[in-house]
Amino acid sequence: MTINCMIASEPSMPQSAAKKAPLIFDAKQLQHQTAIPPQFIWPDDEKPSADPPELDVPLIDLRGFLSGDPAAARRASDLVGEACRKHGFFLVVNHGVDEALVAAAHRKMDDFFLQPLPDKQRAARKLGEHCGYASSFTGRFSAKLPWKETLSFEYSAKSGEHHIVEDYFTNTLGQDFTHLGKVYQEYCSSMSRLSLGIMELLGMSLGVERCHFKEFFEANESIMRLNYYPPCQRPYETLGTGPHCDPTSLTILHQDSVGGLQVHVDGQWRSIAPNVDAFVVNIGDTFMALSNGRYNSCLHRAVVNSTTSRKSLAFFLCPDKNRVVRPPPQLVDAAFPRAYPDFDWADLLEFTQKHYRADMNTMTSFSTWINDRRVTHHV
Ligand SMILES: C=C1C[C@]23C[C@H]1CC[C@H]2[C@]1(C)CCC[C@@](C)(C(=O)O)[C@H]1[C@@H]3C(=O)O
Ligand SMILES: O=C(O)CCC(=O)C(=O)O
Ligand SMILES: [Fe+2]
Questions:
Q1: 42-378 adopts what CATH topology?
Q2: In terms of CB atoms within 10 Å, which of 90, 110, 226, 317 comes out highest?
Q3: HEC per residue, 259-313
Q4: Strands 343-344 and 324-325
Q5: Would you say the CB of residue 243 lies under 6 angstroms from ligand 1?
Q6: 291 with 330: CB under 8 angstroms?
Q7: Whose alpha carbon is nearest atom 1 of ligand 2?
Q8: Nearest atom in ligand 2 to 246's CA
Q9: Could you give the CA distance from residue 364 to residue 275 in angstroms, rounded to a whole number?
Protein backbone atom coordinates (compact mmCIF):
# COMPACT_ATOMS: atom_id res chain seq x y z
CA MET A 1 0.00 0.00 0.00
CA THR A 2 1.80 3.15 -1.14
CA ILE A 3 1.55 6.29 0.94
CA ASN A 4 2.54 9.65 -0.50
CA CYS A 5 4.09 11.16 2.58
CA MET A 6 4.07 14.91 2.75
CA ILE A 7 7.33 16.39 3.99
CA ALA A 8 5.87 19.22 5.96
CA SER A 9 7.61 22.32 7.17
CA GLU A 10 5.34 23.11 10.11
CA PRO A 11 4.89 20.89 13.21
CA SER A 12 1.20 20.23 13.57
CA MET A 13 -0.24 23.65 12.83
CA PRO A 14 -2.83 24.12 10.07
CA GLN A 15 -1.35 23.80 6.64
CA SER A 16 -1.35 26.78 4.31
CA ALA A 17 -2.99 26.02 0.96
CA ALA A 18 -1.92 22.46 0.34
CA LYS A 19 0.97 22.90 -2.11
CA LYS A 20 2.12 19.33 -1.47
CA ALA A 21 0.27 16.11 -2.16
CA PRO A 22 -1.09 15.17 1.30
CA LEU A 23 -0.49 11.78 2.83
CA ILE A 24 -3.29 9.49 1.61
CA PHE A 25 -4.46 7.40 4.57
CA ASP A 26 -6.84 4.47 4.14
CA ALA A 27 -7.94 3.26 7.56
CA LYS A 28 -8.96 -0.12 6.15
CA GLN A 29 -5.29 -0.82 5.33
CA LEU A 30 -3.45 0.89 8.15
CA GLN A 31 -5.57 -0.56 10.95
CA HIS A 32 -3.84 -3.95 10.46
CA GLN A 33 -0.28 -2.62 10.14
CA THR A 34 2.34 -2.14 12.86
CA ALA A 35 4.36 0.02 10.44
CA ILE A 36 2.70 3.38 11.10
CA PRO A 37 3.66 6.66 9.35
CA PRO A 38 5.64 8.81 11.84
CA GLN A 39 3.06 11.59 11.54
CA PHE A 40 0.73 9.49 13.70
CA ILE A 41 3.23 8.84 16.48
CA TRP A 42 2.80 11.32 19.35
CA PRO A 43 5.66 12.71 21.49
CA ASP A 44 6.59 10.65 24.55
CA ASP A 45 5.05 13.17 26.96
CA GLU A 46 1.67 12.88 25.17
CA LYS A 47 1.56 9.14 24.60
CA PRO A 48 -1.34 7.43 26.44
CA SER A 49 -0.63 5.11 29.35
CA ALA A 50 -2.28 1.69 29.75
CA ASP A 51 -5.29 1.47 32.13
CA PRO A 52 -5.61 5.04 33.44
CA PRO A 53 -7.75 5.43 36.60
CA GLU A 54 -11.45 6.07 36.06
CA LEU A 55 -12.94 9.48 36.78
CA ASP A 56 -15.95 9.41 39.08
CA VAL A 57 -18.13 11.69 36.95
CA PRO A 58 -21.33 13.16 38.47
CA LEU A 59 -24.39 11.33 37.09
CA ILE A 60 -27.30 13.78 36.87
CA ASP A 61 -30.83 12.41 36.54
CA LEU A 62 -32.87 14.90 34.48
CA ARG A 63 -36.26 13.22 34.88
CA GLY A 64 -37.52 15.56 37.64
CA PHE A 65 -36.15 18.70 35.99
CA LEU A 66 -37.67 17.78 32.62
CA SER A 67 -41.04 17.12 34.25
CA GLY A 68 -41.01 20.64 35.74
CA ASP A 69 -40.25 19.77 39.37
CA PRO A 70 -38.65 22.94 40.86
CA ALA A 71 -36.81 21.08 43.66
CA ALA A 72 -35.39 18.57 41.17
CA ALA A 73 -34.32 21.45 38.91
CA ARG A 74 -32.50 23.06 41.82
CA ARG A 75 -30.75 19.81 42.72
CA ALA A 76 -29.72 19.20 39.10
CA SER A 77 -28.48 22.78 38.76
CA ASP A 78 -26.37 22.45 41.92
CA LEU A 79 -24.78 19.22 40.61
CA VAL A 80 -24.05 20.86 37.23
CA GLY A 81 -22.44 23.84 38.95
CA GLU A 82 -20.32 21.60 41.18
CA ALA A 83 -19.06 19.61 38.17
CA CYS A 84 -18.32 22.77 36.17
CA ARG A 85 -16.30 24.28 38.99
CA LYS A 86 -14.21 21.08 39.09
CA HIS A 87 -13.48 19.56 35.66
CA GLY A 88 -16.48 20.60 33.57
CA PHE A 89 -17.69 17.07 32.76
CA PHE A 90 -20.91 15.40 33.87
CA LEU A 91 -23.22 12.60 32.71
CA VAL A 92 -26.95 13.01 32.16
CA VAL A 93 -29.48 10.15 32.30
CA ASN A 94 -33.27 10.09 31.86
CA HIS A 95 -32.53 12.87 29.37
CA GLY A 96 -35.62 12.34 27.23
CA VAL A 97 -33.75 11.30 24.08
CA ASP A 98 -35.21 8.15 22.48
CA GLU A 99 -32.72 5.31 22.92
CA ALA A 100 -33.78 3.84 19.55
CA LEU A 101 -32.74 7.13 17.90
CA VAL A 102 -29.32 6.97 19.59
CA ALA A 103 -28.90 3.37 18.46
CA ALA A 104 -29.89 4.31 14.90
CA ALA A 105 -27.42 7.22 14.90
CA HIS A 106 -24.62 4.80 15.85
CA ARG A 107 -25.74 2.16 13.34
CA LYS A 108 -25.96 4.63 10.46
CA MET A 109 -22.32 5.63 11.00
CA ASP A 110 -21.30 2.27 9.55
CA ASP A 111 -23.32 3.00 6.40
CA PHE A 112 -21.00 5.92 5.76
CA PHE A 113 -17.61 4.97 7.25
CA LEU A 114 -17.50 1.37 5.97
CA GLN A 115 -17.67 2.61 2.38
CA PRO A 116 -14.53 2.47 0.22
CA LEU A 117 -12.34 5.59 0.69
CA PRO A 118 -13.17 7.12 -2.73
CA ASP A 119 -16.89 7.00 -1.88
CA LYS A 120 -16.28 8.74 1.47
CA GLN A 121 -14.13 11.33 -0.24
CA ARG A 122 -17.17 12.51 -2.20
CA ALA A 123 -17.93 14.40 1.04
CA ALA A 124 -14.31 15.50 1.53
CA ARG A 125 -13.86 18.50 3.82
CA LYS A 126 -12.34 21.50 2.06
CA LEU A 127 -9.30 23.18 3.64
CA GLY A 128 -10.48 25.87 6.04
CA GLU A 129 -14.04 24.57 6.23
CA HIS A 130 -15.46 22.57 9.13
CA CYS A 131 -18.06 20.44 7.34
CA GLY A 132 -17.40 17.22 5.47
CA TYR A 133 -15.36 14.03 5.67
CA ALA A 134 -11.82 14.12 7.04
CA SER A 135 -9.52 11.12 7.09
CA SER A 136 -7.14 11.81 9.96
CA PHE A 137 -6.67 15.39 8.75
CA THR A 138 -3.71 14.24 6.68
CA GLY A 139 -4.10 17.29 4.43
CA ARG A 140 -4.51 19.69 7.32
CA PHE A 141 -1.81 18.97 9.88
CA SER A 142 1.68 17.62 9.35
CA ALA A 143 2.40 15.90 12.69
CA LYS A 144 0.57 14.45 15.70
CA LEU A 145 -2.19 13.27 13.38
CA PRO A 146 -5.31 11.89 15.08
CA TRP A 147 -6.13 8.24 14.42
CA LYS A 148 -9.70 8.80 13.29
CA GLU A 149 -12.03 9.58 10.45
CA THR A 150 -14.70 12.21 10.97
CA LEU A 151 -17.84 13.42 9.23
CA SER A 152 -19.01 16.85 10.37
CA PHE A 153 -22.08 18.79 9.33
CA GLU A 154 -24.12 21.77 10.47
CA TYR A 155 -27.40 21.75 12.35
CA SER A 156 -29.51 24.92 12.55
CA ALA A 157 -32.35 25.55 14.99
CA LYS A 158 -33.27 28.67 13.04
CA SER A 159 -36.76 28.77 11.61
CA GLY A 160 -36.84 27.74 7.98
CA GLU A 161 -33.67 25.63 8.31
CA HIS A 162 -35.25 22.52 9.82
CA HIS A 163 -34.00 20.24 7.02
CA ILE A 164 -30.41 21.46 6.75
CA VAL A 165 -28.98 18.10 7.91
CA GLU A 166 -31.19 16.00 5.65
CA ASP A 167 -30.41 18.28 2.71
CA TYR A 168 -26.67 18.07 3.43
CA PHE A 169 -26.69 14.28 3.13
CA THR A 170 -28.87 14.20 0.03
CA ASN A 171 -27.03 17.02 -1.75
CA THR A 172 -23.54 15.74 -0.83
CA LEU A 173 -23.98 11.98 -1.06
CA GLY A 174 -27.15 11.43 -3.09
CA GLN A 175 -30.62 10.01 -2.53
CA ASP A 176 -29.19 6.74 -1.16
CA PHE A 177 -28.08 8.69 1.91
CA THR A 178 -31.32 10.57 2.57
CA HIS A 179 -32.19 7.97 5.25
CA LEU A 180 -28.99 8.88 7.10
CA GLY A 181 -29.92 12.54 6.82
CA LYS A 182 -33.33 11.92 8.35
CA VAL A 183 -31.82 10.07 11.34
CA TYR A 184 -29.18 12.75 11.99
CA GLN A 185 -31.69 15.55 11.46
CA GLU A 186 -33.86 14.07 14.23
CA TYR A 187 -30.82 13.28 16.39
CA CYS A 188 -29.52 16.86 16.16
CA SER A 189 -32.97 18.24 16.93
CA SER A 190 -33.02 16.11 20.11
CA MET A 191 -29.51 17.32 20.98
CA SER A 192 -30.52 20.95 20.52
CA ARG A 193 -33.54 20.49 22.80
CA LEU A 194 -31.43 18.77 25.47
CA SER A 195 -28.76 21.49 25.17
CA LEU A 196 -31.30 24.23 25.86
CA GLY A 197 -32.43 22.39 28.98
CA ILE A 198 -28.83 22.13 30.17
CA MET A 199 -28.38 25.85 29.44
CA GLU A 200 -31.25 26.52 31.88
CA LEU A 201 -29.43 24.50 34.55
CA LEU A 202 -26.18 26.33 33.81
CA GLY A 203 -27.94 29.71 34.08
CA MET A 204 -29.47 28.73 37.43
CA SER A 205 -26.12 27.44 38.71
CA LEU A 206 -24.44 30.77 37.84
CA GLY A 207 -27.21 32.81 39.44
CA VAL A 208 -28.35 34.56 36.27
CA GLU A 209 -31.91 34.55 34.87
CA ARG A 210 -32.85 30.93 34.21
CA CYS A 211 -33.61 31.64 30.57
CA HIS A 212 -30.59 33.87 29.83
CA PHE A 213 -28.36 31.25 28.17
CA LYS A 214 -31.34 29.27 26.90
CA GLU A 215 -32.47 32.30 24.89
CA PHE A 216 -28.89 33.00 23.75
CA PHE A 217 -28.76 29.53 22.14
CA GLU A 218 -32.40 29.29 20.97
CA ALA A 219 -31.36 29.96 17.35
CA ASN A 220 -28.21 27.87 17.55
CA GLU A 221 -26.14 26.97 14.48
CA SER A 222 -24.40 23.89 15.82
CA ILE A 223 -21.94 21.31 14.52
CA MET A 224 -22.57 17.57 14.56
CA ARG A 225 -19.50 15.38 14.30
CA LEU A 226 -19.36 11.61 13.79
CA ASN A 227 -16.06 10.22 15.10
CA TYR A 228 -14.92 6.86 13.74
CA TYR A 229 -11.75 5.48 15.34
CA PRO A 230 -10.32 2.46 13.48
CA PRO A 231 -8.28 -0.09 15.48
CA CYS A 232 -4.58 0.73 15.68
CA GLN A 233 -1.72 -1.76 16.15
CA ARG A 234 0.31 0.75 18.18
CA PRO A 235 -2.39 2.16 20.51
CA TYR A 236 0.08 3.42 23.12
CA GLU A 237 1.93 5.62 20.61
CA THR A 238 -1.07 7.18 18.85
CA LEU A 239 -4.15 9.19 19.84
CA GLY A 240 -7.67 9.07 18.38
CA THR A 241 -8.18 12.74 19.24
CA GLY A 242 -5.40 14.83 20.70
CA PRO A 243 -5.56 16.80 23.97
CA HIS A 244 -7.87 19.76 23.61
CA CYS A 245 -10.63 21.89 25.03
CA ASP A 246 -13.67 22.17 22.77
CA PRO A 247 -13.76 25.73 21.36
CA THR A 248 -17.55 25.45 21.13
CA SER A 249 -20.12 26.15 23.88
CA LEU A 250 -21.47 22.80 25.07
CA THR A 251 -20.66 19.29 23.90
CA ILE A 252 -23.12 16.42 24.21
CA LEU A 253 -21.23 13.24 23.45
CA HIS A 254 -22.46 9.68 23.15
CA GLN A 255 -19.64 7.16 23.19
CA ASP A 256 -20.28 3.53 22.29
CA SER A 257 -19.46 0.69 24.67
CA VAL A 258 -15.78 0.51 23.62
CA GLY A 259 -14.52 3.41 25.75
CA GLY A 260 -11.63 5.76 25.07
CA LEU A 261 -12.63 9.23 26.29
CA GLN A 262 -10.19 10.64 28.85
CA VAL A 263 -10.28 13.86 30.88
CA HIS A 264 -7.27 15.64 32.39
CA VAL A 265 -8.03 16.26 36.06
CA ASP A 266 -5.57 17.30 38.81
CA GLY A 267 -2.61 16.66 36.52
CA GLN A 268 -3.71 13.14 35.57
CA TRP A 269 -5.51 11.54 32.60
CA ARG A 270 -8.66 9.77 33.84
CA SER A 271 -10.96 7.61 31.74
CA ILE A 272 -14.73 8.11 31.49
CA ALA A 273 -16.33 4.66 31.49
CA PRO A 274 -18.84 4.00 28.69
CA ASN A 275 -22.49 4.23 29.69
CA VAL A 276 -24.82 3.82 26.70
CA ASP A 277 -27.78 5.16 28.72
CA ALA A 278 -25.98 8.44 29.40
CA PHE A 279 -24.68 11.42 27.46
CA VAL A 280 -21.33 12.88 28.45
CA VAL A 281 -21.65 16.65 28.70
CA ASN A 282 -18.88 19.23 28.92
CA ILE A 283 -18.69 22.96 28.53
CA GLY A 284 -16.40 24.44 25.89
CA ASP A 285 -14.31 27.59 25.50
CA THR A 286 -17.20 29.73 24.27
CA PHE A 287 -19.29 28.97 27.35
CA MET A 288 -16.22 29.52 29.53
CA ALA A 289 -16.15 33.05 28.02
CA LEU A 290 -19.92 33.48 28.54
CA SER A 291 -19.41 32.54 32.21
CA ASN A 292 -16.57 35.09 32.35
CA GLY A 293 -14.16 32.33 33.29
CA ARG A 294 -16.14 31.16 36.34
CA TYR A 295 -16.50 27.75 34.70
CA ASN A 296 -13.60 26.09 32.94
CA SER A 297 -13.57 24.39 29.58
CA CYS A 298 -11.75 21.16 30.23
CA LEU A 299 -8.89 19.30 28.66
CA HIS A 300 -9.76 15.92 27.20
CA ARG A 301 -8.68 13.44 24.50
CA ALA A 302 -9.61 10.06 23.02
CA VAL A 303 -7.43 6.95 22.86
CA VAL A 304 -7.68 3.99 20.48
CA ASN A 305 -7.13 0.24 20.84
CA SER A 306 -5.72 -2.58 18.75
CA THR A 307 -8.83 -4.75 18.37
CA THR A 308 -12.05 -2.76 18.02
CA SER A 309 -13.18 0.30 16.14
CA ARG A 310 -14.78 2.95 18.35
CA LYS A 311 -17.54 5.42 17.51
CA SER A 312 -18.69 8.60 19.20
CA LEU A 313 -21.40 11.09 18.34
CA ALA A 314 -20.42 14.64 19.29
CA PHE A 315 -22.98 17.47 19.15
CA PHE A 316 -21.27 20.84 19.53
CA LEU A 317 -23.69 23.58 20.55
CA CYS A 318 -22.74 26.87 18.92
CA PRO A 319 -24.57 30.22 18.98
CA ASP A 320 -25.87 32.05 15.93
CA LYS A 321 -22.57 32.91 14.17
CA ASN A 322 -23.02 36.63 14.60
CA ARG A 323 -24.25 36.78 18.20
CA VAL A 324 -21.69 38.64 20.30
CA VAL A 325 -20.22 36.36 22.98
CA ARG A 326 -20.25 38.52 26.09
CA PRO A 327 -20.91 37.44 29.72
CA PRO A 328 -24.02 38.80 31.45
CA PRO A 329 -23.14 41.86 33.64
CA GLN A 330 -23.88 39.94 36.86
CA LEU A 331 -20.83 37.76 36.16
CA VAL A 332 -18.38 40.68 35.86
CA ASP A 333 -17.16 42.22 39.11
CA ALA A 334 -13.97 43.09 41.01
CA ALA A 335 -13.32 39.43 41.76
CA PHE A 336 -14.03 38.41 38.16
CA PRO A 337 -13.02 41.21 35.75
CA ARG A 338 -13.60 40.51 32.04
CA ALA A 339 -11.62 37.37 31.21
CA TYR A 340 -11.94 37.52 27.42
CA PRO A 341 -12.78 40.19 24.80
CA ASP A 342 -16.17 40.31 23.09
CA PHE A 343 -16.12 38.10 20.02
CA ASP A 344 -18.55 36.31 17.74
CA TRP A 345 -18.46 32.57 17.23
CA ALA A 346 -17.78 32.98 13.49
CA ASP A 347 -14.37 34.48 14.39
CA LEU A 348 -13.43 31.73 16.83
CA LEU A 349 -14.55 29.06 14.36
CA GLU A 350 -12.46 30.68 11.62
CA PHE A 351 -9.49 30.80 13.98
CA THR A 352 -9.69 27.04 14.67
CA GLN A 353 -10.22 26.14 11.03
CA LYS A 354 -7.65 28.35 9.36
CA HIS A 355 -5.09 29.54 11.88
CA TYR A 356 -4.85 27.38 14.97
CA ARG A 357 -5.24 23.74 15.97
CA ALA A 358 -7.54 23.77 18.97
CA ASP A 359 -5.71 22.65 22.10
CA MET A 360 -5.76 23.73 25.78
CA ASN A 361 -4.64 27.29 25.03
CA THR A 362 -7.04 28.17 22.23
CA MET A 363 -8.79 31.03 24.03
CA THR A 364 -5.55 32.72 25.09
CA SER A 365 -4.16 32.53 21.56
CA PHE A 366 -7.50 33.58 20.07
CA SER A 367 -7.77 36.63 22.36
CA THR A 368 -4.36 37.82 21.15
CA TRP A 369 -5.26 37.12 17.53
CA ILE A 370 -8.62 38.93 17.62
CA ASN A 371 -7.17 41.94 19.46
CA ASP A 372 -4.28 42.21 16.97
CA ARG A 373 -6.73 41.93 14.08
CA ARG A 374 -8.92 44.69 15.52
CA VAL A 375 -5.91 46.98 15.93
CA THR A 376 -4.72 46.24 12.40
CA HIS A 377 -8.15 46.72 10.83
CA HIS A 378 -8.74 49.82 12.95
CA VAL A 379 -5.52 51.47 11.84
C1 LIG B 1 -15.18 23.66 16.32
C2 LIG B 1 -14.57 22.48 16.33
C3 LIG B 1 -13.16 22.25 15.96
C4 LIG B 1 -12.96 20.75 16.32
C5 LIG B 1 -14.34 20.17 16.11
C6 LIG B 1 -15.21 21.20 16.77
C7 LIG B 1 -15.05 21.06 18.30
C8 LIG B 1 -13.78 20.29 18.69
C9 LIG B 1 -12.58 20.64 17.81
C10 LIG B 1 -11.41 19.61 17.83
C11 LIG B 1 -11.97 18.18 17.95
C12 LIG B 1 -10.41 19.84 18.98
C13 LIG B 1 -9.15 18.96 18.79
C14 LIG B 1 -8.47 19.26 17.45
C15 LIG B 1 -9.41 19.08 16.24
C16 LIG B 1 -8.66 19.56 14.99
C17 LIG B 1 -9.70 17.58 16.01
O18 LIG B 1 -8.92 16.73 16.48
O19 LIG B 1 -10.70 17.25 15.36
C20 LIG B 1 -10.69 19.94 16.51
C21 LIG B 1 -11.86 19.99 15.52
C22 LIG B 1 -11.52 20.67 14.19
O23 LIG B 1 -10.86 21.74 14.18
O24 LIG B 1 -11.92 20.08 13.16
O1 LIG C 1 -14.55 10.61 20.80
C2 LIG C 1 -14.47 11.07 21.97
O3 LIG C 1 -14.71 10.39 22.98
C4 LIG C 1 -14.07 12.53 22.18
C5 LIG C 1 -14.07 13.32 20.89
C6 LIG C 1 -13.87 14.80 21.15
O7 LIG C 1 -13.42 15.21 22.22
C8 LIG C 1 -14.21 15.76 20.10
O9 LIG C 1 -14.56 15.32 18.97
O10 LIG C 1 -14.14 17.00 20.43
FE1 LIG D 1 -13.67 17.38 22.38
A1: Jelly Rolls (2.60.120)
A2: 317
A3: CCEEEEECCEEEECCCCCCCEEEEECHHHHHHCCCCCCCCCEEECCCCCCCEEEE
A4: antiparallel
A5: no
A6: no
A7: 312
A8: 10
A9: 33
> pLDDT value at position 345?
96
Can you give the pLDDT at residue 15? 67
Q: Return the pLDDT at 27.
A: 83
Choosing from 229, 244, 251, 288 the residue with most ligand 1 atoms within 8 A of its CB, the one to mutate for a pocket test is: 244
For residue 55, the CA-to-ligand 2 centroid distance in Å is: 16
Active site residue 234: no
Ligand 1 pocket residue status of 357, Cβ below 6 Å: yes
Task: State pLDDT tens for residues 68-81.
Answer: 999 999 999 999 99
Q: Which amino acid is at 336?
A: F
What residue spans define the domains of the chain?
42-378
Q: What is the pLDDT of residue 89?
A: 95
Instruction: Work out which ligand 1 atom sits closest to the CA atom of 150.
Output: 19
Q: From the CB of 358, is ligand 1 less than 6 Å away?
A: yes
Which DSSP state fits 127? T
Residues with CB under 6 A from ligand 2: 225, 227, 241, 246, 253, 255, 260-261, 300, 302, 312, 314
In angstroms, the CA 310 to CA 302 distance is 10
Q: How many CB atoms lie within 10 A of CB 220?
A: 26
- Which of 377, 376, 285, 299 minimizes the C-alpha distance to 339? 285
Helix, strand or coil for residue 153? strand
* Catalytic residue selected from 122, 310, 373, 374: 310
CA dist 181 → 104, 128, 159 (Å): 12, 24, 18
Q: How many A from CA of 376 to the centre of ligand 2?
A: 35
Distance (Å) from CA 358 to ligand 1 centroid: 6
pLDDT for 376 equals 84
Complex ipTM over 0.95: yes
Low-confidence ranges of the chain (pLDDT < 50): 1-11, 379
**Phi/psi at 88 (nearest 5 deg)?**
80, 5
Residue nearest to atom 24 of ligand 1 (CA): 130
Counting from 1 in the atom list of ligand 2, the atom nearest the Cα of 229 is 1
The 221-229 sheet, strands edge to edge:
59-61, 89-93, 279-283, 250-255, 310-317, 221-229, 149-156, 132-135
